[in-house]
Write a structure and sequence with these properties.
Blueprint lengths: L1 H13 L25 E3 L23 E3 L5 E2 L1 E16 L11 E3 L8 E2 L5 E2 L1 E2 L2 E2 L3 E13 L5 E9 L3 H12 L2 E3 L5 E3 L5 E11 L4 E12 L6 H16 L7 H4 L22
Antiparallel strand pairs: 1-2, 2-3, 4-5, 4-10, 4-14, 6-7, 8-9, 10-11, 12-13, 14-15
């Protein structure tokens, strides 16, 4: 009898089920709002996941590595296809105060006029006085991170403070990619036409050092194994972001790993918003 039972168990365990005919079953009511879009971040000395004494510690994670906030996977470099970009003006409580979540998030056109405070941050005025909270102009990228096997995952990347200038450079790099149209004029390629390599590099001024992004153009999406599939997914991700169905998690916006960089020369574009 035991032999029979063992045989039946063996038969069940070796049977291969074709799940492709059941693709997506059970997820009918799972929309973008019910999913956590991972954000990709460069680890630094201030990152909780690097500190052994912190509950968030990730074994093997080094400064300069890029890690995934959901899976906790990390990489020396990544390849991404950018799908959407937007800017938000994020209001924060004074350093060391508040809940760690943004006080308020503005679209650039709705942000109040700002003035540079003695702390080096941008504040708005309340009855002639500088507000205790401060506002950080924040670039948000929504990308597909590519794996070597041709698979991919939706992710987000936040750039602010010293890295906001990198965002401007990256946008310029992307918008300079042009092709001739049928009429002969040059037109800008869509954001998702190319693959970019991203890695962490150490940066410094006279008083501080921090980790920042290095971004290089890698290749055309046409050179990937499944370019049509990537483009369709990129277009869909772009539509989700444009419709407001996808928003960064508060912890993605709270990127203070650069430390209290008061000595960084202010970016003039962060003073006048909505331009």
């Amino acid at each position: 009898m035991n032999d029979v039972a063992k045989k039946k168990k063996s038969d069940v365990s070796t049977k291969v089920i074709d799940f492709s005919s059941h693709a997506g079953v059970g997820f009918e009511n799972v929309s973008a709002q019910e999913m956590a879009i991972p954000f990709l971040k460069i680890a630094s000395s201030q990152t909780p996941e690097v500190k052994k004494s912190n509950a968030k510690f990730v074994e093997g994670l080094d400064q300069g590595d890029i890690f995934n906030s959901v899976t906790k996977d990390f990489y020396k470099s990544i390849h991404v296809v950018p799908c959407a970009f937007r800017v938000r003006c994020v209001e924060w409580s004074p350093l060391g105060e508040g809940t760690g979540a943004p006080v308020k998030i503005y679209k650039p056109e709705n942000c109040p006029p700002l003035t540079r405070g003695a702390d080096g941050e941008d504040h708005y005025m309340i009855n002639g006085a500088v507000s205790p909270t401060y506002i950080v102009r924040t670039a948000e990228y929504f990308v597909l991170r590519l794996n070597d096997d041709g698979s991919y995952e939706r992710c987000q990347i936040i750039m602010q403070k010293t890295q906001y200038k990198k965002s401007r450079y990256w946008n310029t790099m992307m918008m300079n990619q042009k092709i001739p149209s049928q009429s002969g004029s040059l037109v800008t390629l869509p954001m998702f036409a190319n693959v970019y390599k991203m890695e962490g590099v150490q940066e410094a001024n006279k008083k501080n050092d921090w980790w920042g992004w290095k971004i290089t153009l890698d290749k055309s999406v046409n050179d990937l194994k499944s370019p049509t599939q990537i483009v369709e997914e990129a277009k869909h991700f772009h539509e989700l972001v444009s419709s407001g169905s996808v928003d960064p998690a508060p912890e993605a916006l709270n990127d203070n790993d650069e430390g209290d960089l008061k000595d960084i020369t202010p970016n003039a574009d962060s003073v006048v918003l909505g331009s």
